[in-house]
Amino acid sequence: MKQTDLPDTLPLFPLPGALLLPRARLPLHIFEPRYLAMLEDCMKTPHRLIGMIQPRLGPQGEKRLSAIGCAGRLTGFSETEDHRYMITLTGVSRFRLRAEVEGFTPYKRANIDWQPFSRDLGREETDPDFQREPFLALLSRYFATRDLGTDWSGIKAAETELLINSLSMLLPFSPEDKQALLEAPSLITRRETLVTLLEFALHSDGRDETLQ
Question: What is the pTM for the complete model shown?
């Protein structure tokens, strides 16, 4: 897919703490009427894209949207007995918010700019300097301090991009930290940011751990 194939306008799903990254999958539970309407409209489009973006507060406490989000294609869809929907978005590309579009839809829409993130449409990123064993040791300490369980066999077998991006999406960081992970220019800088966040969490718990 090329950037020229992507639409200039996207429906937006502002969700605090929700992070979607290119080529990763994000499951979502849709039940609010405005987002049910968004989902219905999305399914009528050829691209089936929804823009995930984080809300934030402005200087005076006013509600705003973050400058950068990530578009995901609707790739999974199922209806529950109470007429709610479980969907899966597969990340396509990040985008920069240009301006919200005024209109009659109950959900937000915006004009967006794909240009700064052309590399998102390319092949999977690599991280030649990634040291898996020290990273997994750090991750294990982090999980232990928070009594988190995980599928370690899956983590050990995961490709580097999938591992870093999945952890960035799933770990319980603050919305601000999630945004920093989203805006990381490359997989390398995202891995460095993730390591910093894990180390900071351990320091805050009184465990002075540093990944060398």
Answer: 0.89
